[in-house]
């Protein structure tokens, strides 16, 4: 095996970034003329393993047990490390979700391997992994090179396009069980309150509609209008730090240097001045639209399209327009 | 109960955009150096845990002598004990090397129940020292912690924010806890605290004090190298201003343009 990719699933559903990583890994494995394996851990998740084959894995290690139903570091890390020891991949990739980041770090540390976290691009240099990642909070980039036989990286959502599924693709599914004792585990999950039902996550979103200090006049109405536009476009709602610090909206919506780094196709910034700290979080959007009543706002210098106007008028007009077009 | 807070001295967030690639590579950074902003939450949580459960908080950092300033910042906020981990052999350590140094110092300091860190440093951005530390200490790992619910009976119960929602999880001690911004509101250094910090004598431990091998730390042991540090490419777009006679006509025109871009 040349490359092993960890496929993250929650409740039997794979995190979309897992497939993006798998798609890129397929490309790298082909360049190495090597085999691509995936590992899926959980319970009753065979469908996810089949999907992994359709997205390009030559072999999928399907590790199922009731004790593995919910993610816990120790038993999950034991599974991945067991595979690494048995098959000696040169590269192990993880989605840079909270769990994927934790797992990648534990596996890499235990195996004394180098790890590049939160990568935005991957390639091969002299047969080894070269991983591009933002540092200094998005203000600089570096290409990480690795010492030693194993390179580990976690990859941010939307760094690569999702691969096309090929349901007819051939690949083996190798079933096994947990490798560590399933009793006496150090972590016990007491409860899980799912908060994102029906909500598009910011990091996975193709479209993000954000609000900033410009909603100060009536923050409740402002974010209601922002949300209506986001919902109409099937996107996620974001916010600038100014809006979060002012208490208009919870921190989980914050985009920027101290919030989430996002990479949508379309980012609509409403009443956001465009501080450099905000740009560090959304500067990689394909198309940026700025709506601001201040024609001098710095956001216009990075935007593709700009409207100078009152967001309380422009945003609902846009929502109405898209409702007409999108049905 | 013994609490240890691991911190780093980093550039001030506001000055990050001014830092050049050359400065980042040489490590000779002209920007103002401060206590890593994410670590303020870890220091605050250490002080809150001290109030809630009793015990002592020690703050530690790996860095050159000037990193003492970050420790003094923590002392000025109320932490009583601090240790600097400074040795030429530590220079160029990657996250695993740094974790090995911190783990050795924590063992030397006496058994710790909860080790706190910020979510990541604003310069390296990896967030790998907390997991590295957990593995080197054989401690449980809890990241993205938004609330410490309880510590009792050899266990810590916390809330964590994950992509799909909020998890309440109980884990055995010792635990390495990396905290999120939502966990608290860091206090500011107090006037009395700043005076205390100015007078504080902070011990510096070297490689030999920690009983670790030079081969396991520093640039030679690093498993990753940063190459080609650079500014991200600037957006080359030229803004197209959309302005029609009415707001509705402007919205329609913008919708046309975005549909043509195929991003909707």
Q: What do these coordinates show?
A:
The complex is a heterodimer of chains A (327) and B (264). Chain A is an alpha/beta fold. Chain A folds into 2 domains: 3-176, 3-Layer(aba) Sandwich (Rossmann fold), CATH 3.40.50; 207-326, 3-Layer(aba) Sandwich (Rossmann fold). Chain A has helices at 16-31, 46-54, 73-87, 98-110, 219-232, 241-245, 276-282, 311-326; strands spanning 3-7, 9-10, 13-14, 36-42, 59-64, 91-95, 114-119, 121-125, 128-135, 140-146, 151-155, 172-176, 187-194, 207-211, 236-239, 266-270, 287-292, 305-308. Chain A has a 7-stranded parallel β-sheet with strand order 7-11-6-1-4-5-12, sandwiched between helices. A 5-stranded parallel β-sheet of chain A has the order 15-14-16-17-18. The radius of gyration of chain A is 21 Å and the shape is elongated. Chain B is of the alpha/beta class. In chain B, 31% of the residues lie in helices and 28% in strands. Chain B is built from 8 helices and 13 strands. In chain B, the strands form 2 sheets. Chain B has a 9-stranded mixed β-sheet, with helices on both faces. In chain B, helix 4 (95-109) crosses helix 5 (129-137). The longest helix of chain B is centred in the first third of the chain and has 17 residues, at 37-53. The interface between A and B is large, with 88 and 75 residues.
Q: Looking across the biggest beta sheet of chain A, what order are the strands in?
A: 7-11-6-1-4-5-12
CATH topology of chain B: Rossmann fold
Distance between the termini of chain A: 48 Å
| CATH topology title of the largest domain in chain A | Rossmann fold
List keywords for this structure.
A: 327 residues, alpha/beta, Rossmann fold, 2 domains, five-stranded parallel beta sheet, 29% helix, 29% strand, B: 264 residues, nine-stranded mixed beta sheet, 31% helix
Offer a concise description of the structure.
The complex is a heterodimer of chains A (327) and B (264). Chain A is of the alpha/beta class and 327 residues long. Chain A has eight helices and 18 strands.
């Amino acid at each position: 095996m040349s490359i092993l990719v960890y496929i993250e699933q929650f409740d039997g559903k794979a995190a979309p970034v897992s497939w993006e990583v798998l798609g890129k890994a397929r490309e790298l494995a082909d360049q190495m003329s090597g085999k691509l394996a995936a590992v899926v851990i959980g319970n009753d998740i065979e469908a996810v393993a089949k999907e992994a084959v359709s997205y390009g894995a030559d072999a999928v290690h399907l590790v199922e047990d009731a004790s593995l139903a919910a993610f816990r570091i120790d038993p999950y890390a034991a599974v991945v490390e067991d595979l690494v020891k048995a098959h000696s991949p040169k590269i192990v990739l993880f989605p840079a979700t909270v769990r994927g980041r934790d797992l990648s770090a534990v596996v890499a540390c235990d195996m004394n391997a180098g790890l590049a976290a939160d990568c935005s691009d991957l390639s091969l240099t002299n047969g080894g992994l070269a991983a591009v990642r933002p540092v200094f909070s998005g203000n600089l980039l570096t290409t990480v090179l690795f010492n030693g036989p194993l390179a580990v990286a976690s990859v941010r959502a939307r760094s690569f396009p999702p691969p096309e599924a090929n349901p007819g693709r051939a690949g083996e599914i190798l079933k096994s069980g947990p490798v560590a004792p399933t009793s006496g585990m150090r972590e016990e999950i007491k409860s899980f309150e799912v908060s994102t039902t029906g909500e598009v996550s910011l990091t996975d979103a193709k479209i993000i509609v954000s609000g900033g200090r410009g909603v100060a006049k009536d923050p409740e109405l402002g974010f209601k209008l922002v949300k209506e536009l986001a919902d109409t476009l099937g996107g996620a709602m974001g916010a600038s730090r100014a809006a979060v610090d002012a208490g208009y909206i919870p921190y989980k919506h914050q985009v920027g240097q101290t919030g989430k780094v996002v990479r949508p196709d379309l980012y609509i910034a409403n009443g956001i001045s465009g501080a450099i700290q905000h740009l560090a979080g959304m500067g990689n959007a394909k198309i940026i639209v700025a709506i601001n009543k201040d024609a001098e706002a710095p956001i216009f210098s990075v935007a593709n399209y700009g409207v100078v106007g009152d967001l309380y008028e422009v945003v609902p007009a846009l929502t109405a327009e898209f409702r007409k077009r999108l049905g | 109960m013994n609490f240890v807070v691991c911190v780093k001295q980093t550039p001030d967030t506001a000055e990050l955009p001014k830092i050049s690639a050359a400065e980042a590579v040489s490590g000779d950074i002209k920007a103002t150096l401060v206590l890593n902003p994410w670590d303020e939450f870890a220091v605050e949580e250490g002080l809150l845990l001290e109030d809630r459960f009793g015990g002592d908080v020690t703050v530690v950092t790996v860095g050159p002598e000037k990193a003492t300033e970050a420790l003094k910042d923590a002392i000025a906020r109320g932490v009583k004990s601090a240790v600097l981990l400074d040795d030429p052999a530590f220079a160029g350590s990657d996250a695993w090397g740094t974790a090995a140094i911190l783990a050795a110092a924590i063992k030397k300091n006496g058994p710790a129940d909860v080790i706190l860190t910020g979510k990541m440093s604003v310069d390296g951005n990896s967030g790998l020292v907390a997991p590295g530390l957990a593995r080197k200490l054989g401690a449980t790992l809890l990241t993205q912690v938004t609330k410490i619910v309880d510590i009792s009976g050899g266990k810590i119960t916390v809330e964590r924010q994950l992509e799909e929602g909020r998890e309440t999880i109980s884990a055995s001690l010792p635990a390495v806890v990396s905290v999120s911004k939502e966990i608290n509101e860091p206090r500011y250094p107090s006037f009395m605290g700043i005076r205390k910090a100015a007078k504080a004598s902070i011990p510096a431990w070297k490689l030999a004090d920690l009983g670790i091998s030079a081969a396991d730390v520093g640039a030679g042991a690093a498993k990753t190298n940063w190459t080609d540090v650079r500014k991200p490419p600037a957006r080359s777009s030229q803004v197209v201003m959309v302005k029609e006679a009415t707001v509705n006509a402007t919205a329609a025109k913008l919708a046309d343009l975005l549909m043509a871009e195929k991003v909707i």
